[in-house]
Amino acid sequence: MTHQKTSQRLISLDAFRGFTVAAMIVVNTPATEEHVFAPLRHAAWNGFTPTDAVFPFFIFAMGISLTLSYGKLRAKDGQTKRVLLKTAKRAVLIFLIGVLLGLFPQFDFSEIRIPGVLQRIALVFFFCALLFWYTTWKQQAVIGSFLLLAYWLAMTCIPVPGVGTGILEPGKNLAAWIDSLVIPGKMWQGTWDPEGILSTVPAIASGISGMLVGHLLANPQHTPERKVSWMYLAGFASFLLGSAWGWVFPINKNLWTSSYVLYTSGLATMGFASLFFVIEILGKGNWAKPGVVFGSNAITAYVIGGILPGLLYAVNDWYVQAIVDVSGRPEWPSLAWAIFICVACYIPVYLLYRNKIFIKI
């Protein structure tokens, strides 16, 4: 783990990434899973809630950031071997942190879970970095489209032993079958895992969608206003196409379906375009300071958000018994706990931000 001093940063991207991380912390840390408002839950299977947008939004932001930072890196240092070695080391480190975070605080290795959020981020980051280094933006767009089409055909046309063809039920689909054969240790849902192997393939396409926006942002031939117009147009088209594809390949976060990729990438593109317009063009960014602070050390904030509830488990148990369970509307104090965790995470990342330190894991 290293740290670096600040350099010129795209404030709207930091804000977008930061608000996404804050949302990740809030939806992951209610006082009790039994009392959560419906929009703060993932869809049980097919369908979509605001919570289902959080993870792909982060991957989308990572795609933008990768394109902008690696573009500058390639301009300064074209030594591919050294860059890719650092990329691989960073991906491995993020993956291992994700595994260790899943073991915290008991560190019971008999319950080890290999897949996870940071693990998927690490894999998507690595493969997207390879694509950036060896392909053009047009080739990336073609590859992303191919991945989505191939995943759709695989999930709906390849027969699964003991299940059948085209079945997309929990634990009874091609992705779950592959995971049951390949993934060691524990899976999140017993017989299947939402961050499994096959469903990581379309997640790479989510990263590519961010990369394409990054290429647009880096293009000096377009004015900022035109960039916003293109983002809104492309985002809305992706949103519509994802919605239509969902009629035959349901929008499903657990399977990370192709329709889900286009649907969430469209929303992410339009959401980022709005922030870019307000912050970068209108120059009104003071209100986004909390997001910028979180976004400047996004993975650090996420890791703290994963550790803190384990450290406070005794306080959490008391809080649930003394306040949540006796409340007339227990969803509110449960949400208050999640906001408390989020604010607690903000303090250390704010100190890092104030000292102009950005931790690169």
UniProtKB/TrEMBL annotation:
TM segment ranges: 53-71, 83-105, 117-134, 146-168, 197-218, 230-248, 260-279, 291-315, 335-353
Protein name per UniProt: Predicted acyltransferase
GO molecular function, one term: acyltransferase activity
Domain Heparan-alpha-glucosaminide N-acetyltransferase catalytic: 9-154
Protein keywords: Acyltransferase, Membrane, Transferase, Transmembrane, Transmembrane helix
Species: Parapedobacter indicus
